[in-house]
Amino acid sequence: MFAQNAIGFWSASASYPACIDDGHHWWYDATDLAQITKDGSDFVSSFKSKGILTRDLLQATGTNQPLWVTPGTIRFDGVDNFLKAVAFTWNQPEYIYLLVKQISHQNVDYWFDGNIVDRGIIYESAAPNVIKPYAGAEPVSTNELTINTWGVVRVLFNGASSKIIVNNNAALTGNFGANNMGGFTLGRSGAAVVGNCANIEVKDIICANIVDAVGDEADIYAFLLSRKP
Amino acid sequence: MIKLAIYTSKIEAQTYADKIHQWLIKNRKDYKADRWCDVEETKDQTGLKYYVKVPPDYEVLNAKIALAKDKLTLPLTASIVDKLPDDWRKIDEILKGDT
């Protein structure tokens, strides 16, 4: 983005990490109403992505539409709300950053998935407050995100070099499996498996089809942290 | 709260879902959906039941259209897409929405 300074020159003033425009990232921004189609009761039928890649999230069935909440978040009711992109090529490495709040916790509720079931997920396990990443294997879990509290969760699905980080805690690493996402489903598993909708609220989601450089990863984390509600 | 209208007839349930959809087109500004919901089904000891979710603003905005006379009320977080809670009959008897 650009802003005009007092003497009439144009100067760059990046309001988001530059890497988002590199053609490998896309960003869902719930504060930008130009990217959101919602009805008079704030139920969302379209959540468009920003960046060069187009990965819009859609929901054509009324009762499945999540709720947009002032001043700019999207809340999934944990009953039947989800958004889903048309299938696209998304193979590992897959990097997903979420500014998210887990409103309530229920076993086997999916925060997100790929185009079909269990392609690349974070899901809630039976133990209170525990979430797990999975793309064919689940060697790690974490309870570092407190219920009903906003936090930044980042997960990299990259075979044996996968990792998940909650806020600024230490990375939990391991082989999360080799499944490729092939799309993006937010708030539910990728297939119409009943009972898997998560009760979460999101503000920003930034996705990438590369392993981010250390500097880019730090920039994105700092950016999301600055946008914490 | 999530509210459901329960039917023993799938056709009646679909009719009610279609009615809600038409009502939303007319009454909810910028409503954008191809359909309100898919009719869900569950089985209990008396056979199959079909249920339709009622939008949260249906009663608030709908002052004139008669509401379903009997509705099952569940907590917001109930997994109604999976099955009805085990004790749902304790909440009320078999229910039928308006058609």
Task: Offer a quick outline of the entry.
The complex is a heterodimer of chains A (229) and B (99). With 229 residues, chain A is mainly beta.
Please, how many helices of chain A?
1
Distance between the termini of chain B: 22 Å
Percent of residues in helices of chain B: 25-40%
Coarse morphology of chain B: elongated
The class by helix and strand makeup of chain A works out as: mainly beta
The overall pLDDT average of chain A reads 92
Largest sheet of chain A: 9 strands, antiparallel
Question: What descriptive keywords fit this protein?
Answer:
heterodimer, A: 229 residues, 9-stranded antiparallel sheet, 8-stranded antiparallel sheet, globular, disordered N terminus, B: 99 residues, alpha+beta, 3 helices, 4 strands, elongated
Explain what the structure shows.
- The complex is a heterodimer of chains A (229) and B (99).
- In chain A, 6% of the residues lie in helices and 34% in strands.
- The two termini of chain A are 23 Å apart.
- Chain A has one helix spanning 214-226; strands at residues 2-4, 10-12, 25-29, 36-38, 44-47, 49-50, 57-58, 67-69, 73-75, 83-85, 94-102, 110-113, 121-124, 131-134, 150-157, 162-166, 172-174, 185-186, 200-208.
- Chain A has 1 helix and 19 strands.
- By secondary structure, chain A is mainly beta.
- In chain A, a hairpin with a 5-residue loop joins strand 1 and strand 2.
- Residues 1-14 of chain A have low confidence and may be disordered.
- With 99 residues, chain B is of the alpha+beta class.
- Chain B has a 4-stranded antiparallel sheet with strand order 2-3-1-4, covered by helices on one side.
- Chain B is built from 3 helices and 4 strands, in the order βαββαβα.
- Chain A binds chain B through residues 37-41, 45-46, 59-65, 77-80, 104, 106, 194-195, 197, 199, and chain B through 2, 21, 24, 28-38, 53, 55-57, 76-83.
